[in-house]
What we know:
Blueprint: E1 13-17, H1 22-33, E2 37-42, H2 45-57, E3 64-67, H3 73-87, E4 92-95, H4 110-138, E5 141-146, H5 150-153, H6 159-179, E6 184-191, H7 197-202, H8 207-215, H9 225-236, E7 247-250
Parallel strand pairs: 1-2, 1-4, 2-3, 4-5, 5-6, 6-7
Helix pairs in contact: 1-9, 3-4, 4-6
Bound molecules: nicotinamide-adenine-dinucleotide.
Amino acid sequence: MTFAQYPSLAERVIFVTGGATGIGADIVEAFAQQRARVAFVDLQAEAGDALAERIAARGEPKPLYLRGDVTDIPALQAAIGRARDELGPIGVLVNNAANDRRHKVDDVTVDFWDETQNVNLRHHFFAAQAVRAQMRELGGGSIINMSSTSWRFGASEMPAYATAKAAVLGLTRALARAFGPDNIRVNAIEPGAVMTPKQRQLWYKTEDSVQAMVERQLLRRVLLGEEIARMILFLAADDSRMITKQSFIVDAGLR
Ligand SMILES: NC(=O)c1ccc[n+]([C@@H]2O[C@H](COP(=O)([O-])OP(=O)(O)OC[C@H]3O[C@@H](n4cnc5c(N)ncnc54)[C@H](O)[C@@H]3O)[C@@H](O)[C@H]2O)c1
């Protein structure tokens, strides 16, 4: 199979949160393949450094890995400032970092609730706020927020996470309206069951459990992070320049 190459993404500065592992790493790789200049922030230093090295070894532009915690808003703002200083104004923001920890309703404390919103929702707003001036400078930009289809099902095994992921869509629509006059587009993606290494390690430990999920999809193949990344490339590229305030489900037709 062959996939699109977007001329408008070459040299574009991209900022990705949670880019060291999982879907975020696939997003970083996909932009590097487009010869974009990528900065990504993540807690996991070893994985972040290794990803940057792996991409550089392929002859693609080496991404700038920044160690950081997206729940620490001043640190996130500083990381965005550093990316700008080193790479130039940010044209694309991918708000991807999250944590889908399972939790039972009866066990949720106020602190747990707040932490869950902070890691899954709050940083989306502050990162968008921080890149706005840079995108204005460029004459426009694209912000892509990661939601999830889990809230549509009513994910009873993680209600605080599902709440945050539903709120990401409200945030997307409000920011699209606020930023539209500056030609800054804001869209969301709702992935289905993406079989990342972490998902396989925690929840889909056997091939049978993976296959059981695949059977629930209309397209009977394992859904991979690179498939989510391809939709993100399209939303980042000029090809989607009149698309904003939308949410796109990429779930292989999960039932
Ligand atoms: N995997 C799926 O099936 C699936 C389904 C629906 C939606 N999503 C969404 O897609 C996105 C990526 O999912 P994933 O499965 O790759 O997640 P993941 O948990 O495997 O990876 C998240 C990345 O974010 C980083 N991160 C977590 N907390 C952080 C923090 N406080 N500061 C900085 N970095 C932090 C992690 O280190 C990791 O590299 C998330 O927004 C998730 O909600 C995933």
